């Protein structure tokens, strides 16, 4: 293996391999191979479920650990590793490259893949069937394909890896395919993801035809100096990659797919897979000249709408995993607002604004992967213990699952942006950049700053209300069902995975100045600015973060001392614990508690025009009513009013072509012959 500045060429049959720089790219290939091998062996040996799951877990943990080491090495050393090879497939080549941007996005992929691998075996306990063993194949292939997409520098290779990444979650979503709702969720996911792939296919075909090759370097050469072409490619990328990221209105697959998939798969899909869509948008931006201002506005508009609508839809949910899925839409919106501010900064030549915007968006990529992975794993522990994630059937789990409840609380505090956790750092950066834009004399920049600040204020407030509902109803109060009352703490491997993610939330928050400054190489890659200039732009905000951390540490210390003094005083006074006052009720029941619906009802009513929640109320009648009922449907309005009618129309159109399917071989042979004749005739007309 060659080191920096070293080139070697090796031949393997039809493959000609040229490797340069260092061994990191080879380590990554070993990681991908180990993931694939572990998954393949698990699938092949599914008739021995326990052994097969062990192999799948070993491949997931081992491959992810190697891949994580490769990513960290690249970020630490600052080197770029390249591997190129010719292959027998026409129209493309094997071109892999790990730069700072790729390594940064590999962190959530391999980090979550490692922890979900540890978590998954215990979560699947009791399902030691061949079906559960085979699920490791799809989980590992998803991780391997995501890594390959991130390091691919060839359009054809990118699309092949993208398609593998798109298909693998389908089999995870349809893991328990007995309910009709699960099968429907899987097909909605498949339709939505391939809608985005269609736009990407058009983009890569157009770029390939113009460049004369499928290499990203050729794409960059074609795009430079052609703002009209760059704008077209930007729009195709925004729609294509945005469908995978979950931008409104192409988000409809997230709240359907995440509740259906196993929870550790949901954590990987929400924490890592949708970030690959963000990576695609950012990578395309790096291939272009200085961006146009309206690109930034398009990203901010998409981010603000996704963020606000995502948290509003989450507020109306009664399924814990569905609620978390909508919060993924919200946080993708936050990421896009940051990237949009960065693009606007570059368009107007405002270096500091560009650096802060990109830093906020990129840091939130990692932060969201950490706390959203934690929350989905926590939801999985709840589901494993109580056999449901229906919020209205839970309650009182903190006493029965203290470790799960504590880690879930940390994740909930992080996602709403409370200090001193990681979510606070990236959201502080975003508000800071919005404030800098707001005080600029440029009207466009000031307007962008105002939109970002107002959006973040609305998103943060609604998110706090939503997670107060989620944590309070699920973990506090009394159990609302027998299963919740019998729940027990999760297994040790599941707790370890959740504890690691919770510690990461605290560590990034506590080391906020270092975390922000460590983004310099990644932000420099995206903005094409030298690292010293990036460090200088980040210096003021790191100073503000340092002051915020010191103030919070002092307040936390004061609160701790006050709590210790109070505890000692109560102990000396002989004060003992007793049941809380029940407002005169002698036999309170779980039905007397707030429900998730009643908690969220004031806010849901305020925003009913956007949420469009469907409610059916049979009110009590008379002095002695015999019955009453209330039903609310929190289904996605975009799915109900836009996509579902479109799918039905498409289904009617496709049923009309069933007449060509006679089931007779001789008719199909006739179709083939007619097609060949048409192609020969068409070819004869070509010059």
Overall description:
Helix content is 72%, strand content 5%. The protein has 26 helices and six strands. The strands form two sheets. The protein has a four-stranded antiparallel sheet. Strands 5-6 form a two-stranded antiparallel ribbon. It has helices spanning 24-44, 49-77, 100-123, 130-151, 155-173, 180-211, 216-223, 227-245, 254-260, 263-286, 293-315, 320-347, 351-386, 397-400, 402-415, 422-438, 443-475, 482-485, 492-510, 512-517, 520-527, 531-573, 596-606, 608-611, 637-655, 665-685, and strands spanning 7-12, 15-20, 81-86, 94-98, 614-618, 629-633. It is globular, with a radius of gyration of 27 Å. It starts with 6 loop residues before the first strand and ends with a helix. The chain is mainly alpha-helical and 687 residues long.
């Amino acid at each position: 293996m060659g080191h920096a500045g070293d080139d070697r060429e090796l031949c393997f049959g039809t493959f000609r391999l040229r490797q340069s720089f260092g061994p990191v790219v080879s380590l990554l290939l070993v990681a991908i191979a180990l993931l694939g091998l572990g998954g393949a062996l698990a699938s092949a040996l599914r008739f021995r479920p326990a052994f097969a799951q062990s192999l799948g877990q070993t491949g997931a943990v081992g491959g992810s650990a190697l891949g994580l080491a490769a990513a960290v090495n690249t970020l630490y050393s600052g080197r770029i590793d390249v591997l190129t090879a010719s292959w027998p497939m026409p129209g493309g080549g094997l071109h892999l490259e790990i730069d700072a941007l790729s390594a940064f996005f590999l962190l959530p992929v391999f980090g979550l893949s490692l922890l979900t691998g540890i978590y998954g075996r215990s979560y699947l306990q009791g399902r030691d069937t061949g079906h559960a063993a085979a699920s490791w194949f799809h989980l590992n292939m998803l991780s391997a394909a995501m890594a390959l997409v991130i390091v691919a520098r060839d359009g054809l290779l990118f699309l092949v890896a993208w398609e593998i990444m798109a298909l693998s979650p389908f089999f995870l979503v349809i893991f328990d395919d007995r309910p009709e709702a699960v099968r429907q969720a899987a097909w909605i996911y498949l339709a939505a993801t391939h809608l985005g792939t269609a736009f990407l296919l058009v983009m890569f075909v157009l770029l390939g035809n113009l460049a004369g090759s499928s290499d990203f370097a050729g794409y960059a050469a074609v795009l430079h100096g052609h703002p009209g072409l760059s704008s077209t490619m930007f729009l195709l990328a925004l729609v294509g990659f945005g469908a995978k990221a979950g931008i409104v209105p192409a988000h409809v697959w997230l709240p359907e797919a995440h509740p259906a998939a196993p929870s550790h798969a949901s954590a990987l899909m929400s924490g890592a897979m949708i970030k690959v869509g963000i990576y695609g948008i950012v990578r395309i931006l790096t291939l272009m000249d200085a961006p146009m201002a309206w690109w930034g506005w398009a990203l901010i508009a998409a981010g603000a709408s996704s963020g606000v609508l995502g948290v509003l839809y989450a507020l109306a949910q009664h399924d814990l995993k569905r609620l978390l899925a909508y919060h993924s839409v919200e946080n993708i919106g936050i990421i896009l607002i940051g990237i949009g501010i960065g693009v606007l900064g570059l368009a107007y030549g405002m270096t500091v604004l560009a650096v802060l915007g990109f830093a906020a968006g990129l840091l939130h990529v990692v932060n969201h992967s950490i706390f959203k992975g934690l929350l989905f794993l926590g939801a999985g522990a709840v589901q494993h213990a109580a056999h449901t994630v229906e919020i209205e059937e839970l309650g009182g789990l903190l006493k029965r699952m203290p470790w799960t409840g504590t880690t879930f609380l940390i994740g909930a505090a992080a996602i709403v942006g409370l200090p001193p956790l990681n979510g606070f750092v990236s959201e502080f950066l975003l508000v800071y950049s919005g404030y800098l834009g707001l005080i600029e004399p440029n009207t466009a920049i000031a307007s962008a700053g105002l939109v970002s600040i107002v959006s973040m204020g609305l998103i943060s407030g609604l998110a706090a209300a939503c997670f107060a509902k989620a944590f309070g109803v699920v973990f506090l109060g009394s159990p609302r069902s027998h299963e919740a009352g019998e729940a027990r703490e999760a297994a040790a491997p599941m707790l370890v995975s959740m504890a690691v993610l919770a510690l990461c939330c605290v560590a990034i928050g506590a080391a906020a100045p270092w975390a922000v400054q460590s983004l310099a190489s990644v932000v420099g890659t995206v903005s094409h600015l030298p690292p010293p200039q990036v460090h200088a732009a980040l210096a003021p905000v790191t100073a503000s973060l340092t002051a915020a951390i010191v103030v919070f540490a002092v307040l936390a210390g004061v609160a701790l001392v006050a709590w210790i003094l109070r505890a000692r005083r109560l102990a000396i006074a002989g004060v003992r614990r007793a049941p809380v006052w029940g407002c005169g009720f002698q036999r309170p029941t779980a039905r007397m508690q707030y429900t998730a619906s009643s908690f969220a009802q004031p806010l849901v009513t305020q925003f009913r025009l956007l949420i469009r929640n469907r409610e059916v109320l049979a009110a009590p009648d008379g002095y002695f009513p015999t019955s009453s009922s209330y039903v609310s449907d929190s289904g996605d309005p975009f799915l109900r009013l836009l996509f579902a009618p479109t799918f039905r129309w498409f289904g009617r159109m496709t049923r009309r072509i069933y007449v060509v399917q006679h089931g007779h071989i001789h008719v199909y042979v006739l179709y083939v012959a007619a097609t060949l004749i048409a192609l020969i005739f068409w070819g004869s007309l070509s010059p």
